[in-house]
Each structure stands twice: as structure tokens, then as C-alpha cells.
């Protein structure tokens, strides 16, 4: 087999100086072909070159032949956004039950919801806490998806809280414990559910973010935050329980967060909504999620909110 240079989605976004969601949108539309290695999508260098050349000649007075691979009329790429491994399982079930081909974007809740508003994502996972109502997700959805009909479905519930070093030597047990100069935090990126959870509780407790040691130090996943705490780069981080168990550090549970899925209700999404509904309600899917541990499936598949 000949050696062909290829790039990850992140590498292509850096090369073209655009967001990863822009690249996912190009892939979804079939403008840039991809292949998969396990969970990771890659783009061949020659296909990227073809796309760039096509854009360069797009304003030429002669017709331009599109050089991307044709997409089957019977299949459609959809983008599922979010980081939890359950979304990968959902994607596999969708592909088994339908002709949809799933692409994965590992972008945070708020940025993904905005991308859905802009027509990029098809299924967005959300875990955004609202400090004024104590509710998850719906207050944000109502403000951002103005003018769009949608359905909000529960995927699961899970514990969120603090990652701390073994034995919790600094006795970090509440949000106000972060407001100490000797406690160093590692944060999540703007737009992520964990970042919103932290910011909302700082607001509720009248703690300025400038008082939080390490607030500007960001990582982009639960695992990377947990790993930073494990290695001693920080004393505490905010995230979900499962990552703490994977890394082998202690976890201080603070809240049970509702992890939901949102899909726009438009004619071309009717089949997708029905497929996802069937999967979430199936015993097979729920048993598979339950076997992973640390997830509550008591509301899985229930409709949290729906517009008509």
C-alpha cells in the first residue's frame, strides 16, 4: 500500500485557519471526503489539495468540475456533537438502524448549540446548568434556537463535581472552597458545559473569576482536566465522575446533571428523530449504557421539551 499523507480534522482546521466545525460542515456536505481510523476521521492530503484548488478556480469564467467523492442518494452524513463516549455508541446504533452515516464533533455544548443554529450540527448533546432556574439546557435552548422548532430528549443523567488528588488533601468540597489563593484550578474551554457549571456557581456565590487561581488555564476535555489534576499541575478541576475513575483520582460529586440531545424539527429530520427516539427507548441501547456504570438511564428517551 502506497504511503499517503493524511490529516486529522483538527490539523486541517489549523492549516486552513478555520474552526473544526467548519471542516465538519464541509465533510457533512460531501465537499471534502474522509476515511476513518477507529473513532478518528482523517482527510487525505490530495483530497484537501483538490478542495483548495476548486475554491481557487471557483470565480473563473469556465465551469468548475467538483472533485469531491459523490454521496449516495440513500445515505446522508449527520454530525453528532459532544464528548461523552455514549455518543459514539449512539452513532453506531444510528448507522445500524438507518442509512445515516455519523460524523463526530467533540465541541462543547454552547458552541455546538450555536453551530446548530447556523446549520452545522444535526444532533447536539447538552449539559448546561442555569443558575437562575436550577434547570439544565432548556433555558439556553429557548434563547439560542429562537424561531426554530426542536425536540429535546434525555440521553442520560450523570454526576458532575470536582476532580481532586487522592485523599483530597486540600479538603475541597464546595464551590466557595475554590476562592482560596493556595488552591489552583484547571478550567475548561469557553462554551463547554463544565465551564458553564463553574461560571454559574461563581456567579451565584458572588466570587469574581479573577480570584480563582488558574482560572485562565484551560483544557478541552474531561480526561485532560482529570489528568492535569492527577499529575499535580492543578489541585482541582470540574468534570464528570467517569473521567476521575479512568485517571484514578478522587471525585467530589456536587450535582446530578441532565445530559440531553436536541434535534431540529424540520421535514428532512423526521426520519432522524424517529430513529433516535427508537434507539433511546430500546432495551438494547439502555442496557449497553447501563453496563458502562456511572450513568442514570431512568429518564433516557423521555421528551424534555418539544415545540410544534
Outline:
The protein has 308 residues and is of the alpha/beta class.
Question: What would you say this structure looks like, in words?
Answer:
The protein is of the alpha/beta class and 308 residues long. Among the domains are: 1-69, Multidrug-efflux Transporter Regulator, Chain: A, Domain 2, CATH 1.10.1660; 159-257, Periplasmic binding protein-like II (D-Maltodextrin-Binding Protein, domain 2). The chain is built from eleven helices and twelve strands. The strands form two sheets. Strands 4, 5, 6, 7, 8, 9, 10, 11 and 12 form a nine-stranded mixed beta sheet that branches. A three-stranded antiparallel beta sheet has the order 1-3-2. α4 crosses α10 (270-281). It is globular and about 55 Å long. The protein starts with 5 loop residues before the first strand and ends with a strand.
Fraction of residues in helix: 25-40%
Gyration radius (Cα, Å) is: 21 Å
First and last CA, distance: 53 Å
So what's the CATH class of the domain at 159-257? Alpha Beta
What percentage of amino acids are in beta strands? 15-25%
Helix/strand class: alpha/beta
Quaternary state of the chains: single chain
For the biggest sheet, the summary is:
9 strands, mixed
Domain Helix-turn-helix: 7-55
GO molecular function, one term: DNA binding
Domain PBP: 94-280
Protein name: Excisionase
